Structures are given as structure tokens and as C-alpha cells.
Fold this sequence. Notes:
By secondary structure, this protein is of the alpha+beta class.
Amino acid sequence: MKSTISKLVLPIVALAMLGFGVFHILKAQQTLPKPSPPVPPARSPFGNTIAGTGVVEARTENIAIGSALPGVVLEVFVPVDDVGKEVQAGEALFRVDDRQLRAQLAVQQANLVAAKSQLSKLDQMPRPEEIPATKARVEAAEANVLRLLDQYQRAHKLLASRSIGAEEHNILQRQYEEAVHQREQASADLKLLTAGAWEPDKAIARAAIQQAEAQIAQTQTEIERALVRAPVAGRVLQVNVRPGEYVGTTPGLALVVLGDIGSLRIRVDIDEAEIPRVQPGASATAFPRGGSRQEVPLQFIRIEPMVTAKRSLTGDNTERVDTRVLRMVYEVAAADTALYVGQQLDVFLSALPEPAANSVRLVHK
């Protein structure tokens, strides 16, 4: 009985497995219908076209604001909550710590006051109070000369009659001569006093004033450099600085990004292999990613005549990172187009027709 069951079960199982294998093979060979893309791909409106990737930027380009001086940020006048606000040219954006500079300015201003006071002192010389005292010393010296002259003359007569000795006569003579020199010194002091300050001394004082003023101007310039202002009127696009953070002067992350977005522009990268087909002033149309049905007409602005390494990457797996590109700049024709700075678009340009395959000939020498 068991032998009969085994003879029946094994063929049935084998047939079932064979049927399952045939079903699986047939199902695997079926061609599944291709799913429709969620968004239809953008299509060029031109017969001969060049495709490129465009990035939206401000009319003034995206200005990365940095700091002229390193230091700790004390104030940010456009905080994160105010990103997107309009600022005028010269409006303050943030301020680096300038307390040491302000203390230095106070010292220099005091030095300027001292230098001006010194010049004023020299200009007002001599002091009126000093002249009478100096004149009195001259008169006293003159009186002393007359007194000693009288004594010397009498001694000279007495010497002739041998009433006094030669030594006493010589002492009176030397006293008289000394009095004469003292009178000359007093007279010279009076002339020096009434002449006022020496002109070279005034020149030195004026130079000290100029030096102090120059130091003040230099420090004021440094204080002004510590206050970072908007170079142009535009909109704050990004703020990457906070109070208390240290900022340097080396290139790096932009502290504030500013730009005039009254009219947007699109910078298009054209692969260097397509450069022979580029037409200056070519018509162009852009399509935003994810909304390719929305056509954005563009107006030609310029071609940047320098081929550079590609920096704007799309993330496509087939994209080469060693590609060099020619950059063309277009302006968005419609001002009310909903685009944002930094947004990537698919751009199509009208171009020259592709050269025929047999149009290139090799010349052998």
C-alpha cells in the first residue's frame, strides 16, 4: 500500500514543480509597461538647441559680504528673522568689536589737545608777567655796572698816588668787568624773551598737531571698518553670523549674502563641447525643476569670454566633474516669475545646427 502511494505522490510533486517553474519563467519574460514620469520632461522649443544648467542669481550677482577686520561680532543689525529685508547702500549690517579702537581714539584725542595747547603757548610767548621782571634785572645790572665803574675809577686814581695797592685795584677792575658781562646777559635775556617763541619750535608743535590728527583719522577709519555696511542697495539673501561669534578676514563662508533681486538673472553653463554651436545673443527659455511646463523666457545679457571649470553640479550620475564650461548670462524677462536665488533650471538655447559627421576631414602631411 505504501509503495503504491509513493509511486503516485512523487510524479504529482514533480509535475507541480515543473508547472511552477514554467509559470515563473513566462512571468519573468513579460514586458511591463513603462511608468509615466510624475512630471513631463522639459522639451526645447527650438529646432537646433543647446541644453545647459542655469542658476538663478541677483542682478548684482550674489555679493558675499565679509569683514575687513578680524574679531568678535558685537552687533548684527540684520538678524536671521530679517532675512529678505531691503537695505540701502551704506546701511549697517553688523559690527565687529571696536572697544579697543575707541579707547585708543580717546588717548589720541587727548594728545591732540596737548599738542594744540603747546602751539598756543608758543604763539602767546612771551608772557606779559615775565617782561617787567626781566627789565628789572637789566636795570639792576646797569646800576651795578655804574656803581662798580665809579669804584674802579676812584681806585685807579688812588693807585696813581699809591694810596691803595695794585691787588685791590685789580679786584675792583674784575668786579666791574663781571658786572658789565652780567648787564649784557640780562639785556640778551630781555631780547630773547621779547622775541617770542622760536619759529622752528612752532614748526615742531604744528607737526605734532598734524601727527595727532593723522593718528585720530587712522583710528576713526579702523572704527569705521569695524562697522560692515551694505555696498549696494539690495535684499539680504542670507545671514551666517551671530553676536559673539569670531570672524576672520580669510575667504570662507559668506557672513552676509546680499543682492539686488529687482530683476533676476540666470547664469547658464554650456559644455565646452557645445561651444562651436553657440550664437551670441541666442534666444533662450528656461524651465524650473519640478515644474517643467512653466516656460521662463530669457533675455540675453552677455557671454563671459573665459572657459572655466564647472562648479555648479546637478547631481546627475552621468555628470562629469572635470568638465569645463562657457558661462552665458540671461535676464528673466518677466519680473513676476516665481524664482528664488540659487534655484537650478533647465535652459535651452537656440544654436547652430550640428556639423555633419563627414564634414571633418583629417589632413595628412
